[in-house]
Amino acid sequence: DIQMTQSPSSLSASVGDRVTITCRASQSISSYLNWYQQKPGKAPNLLIYAASNLRSGVPSRFSGSGSGTDFTLTISSLQPEDFATYYCQQSYRTPPWTFGQGTKVEIK
Amino acid sequence: EVQLLASGGGLVQPGGSLRLSCAASGFIFSDYAMSWVRQAPGKGLEWVSAISNTGGRTYYADFVKGRFTISRDNSNNTVYLQMNTLRGEDTAVYYCAKDLVRFSSSPDAFDFWGQGTMVTVSS
């Protein structure tokens, strides 16, 4: 199975900060990498698919990059509504579809 | 508007069974693969099972293989998860999720999620 490792596991940031979350796959997954945002008590929400494609309706301050084994999710200017947990997920070699352990973005 | 309404969760004893349902609306259900993803209390997301748009292909995580069965009824726009021989470690919120891509035999990304249904396995 492909293992997905996110870093950091948590971070504290202020409104307006640029935030970068990293996801590393245990083997190459080409660009088959998706990013989700989850707020407490809510279902996850797809932000980015195929590594760099912004889902319709998602603010442009979110962006994704990378290919192979290393990927990043960047929030260019953190907004109050962005405080949440973020997960990466691979869909290259399946089953299983595997998620990272999550990165919790908290208010500084 | 796409809606996924999950139901069927509850409290069950170890070794017991439950059947989860997920009623879909707002899209052509028979065009999309569907999945179940779970989240144990305070933990991350864990994919459980998936089914192709026609129902002809099913996929399972190793930890549920032989215990859970996914199925779908395209005439009633519903996907099911039959869960047998439940264990304490199956305690989680179970989400149903729709595939992003039409006519894909297996999921690519999960673009819409149900609200989740809680399954608690305890004596």
Overall mean pLDDT score of chain B?
97
Mean pLDDT of chain A: 97
Rg of chain B to the nearest angstrom?
13 Å
Oligomer type: heterodimer
Helix residue percentage of chain B:
under 10%
Main beta-sheet annotation of chain B? 7 strands, mixed
Q: Whole-Å distance between the termini of chain B?
A: 40 Å
What series of H and E elements makes up the topology of chain A?
Answer: EEEEEEEEEEE
Shape of chain A: globular
**Major sheet attributes of chain A:** 7 strands, mixed
- C-alpha termini separation of chain A: 36 Å
Number of strands of chain B: 11
Number of helices of chain A: 0
Binned, the helix content of chain A reads under 10%
Walk me through this protein's architecture.
The complex is a heterodimer of chains A (108) and B (123). Chain A is mainly beta and 108 residues long. Helices cover 0% and strands 49% of the residues of chain A. Chain A has no helices and eleven strands. In chain A, the strands form two sheets. In chain A, strands 2, 4, 5, 6, 9, 10 and 11 form a seven-stranded mixed β-sheet that branches. Chain A is globular. The mean pLDDT of chain A is 97. Chain B has 123 residues and is mainly beta. Chains A and B meet through strand 4, strand 5 and strand 10 of A and strand 5 and strand 10 of B.
How would you sum up this structure in a few lines?
The complex is a heterodimer of chains A (108) and B (123). Chain A has 108 residues and is mostly beta strands. Chain A has no helices and eleven strands.
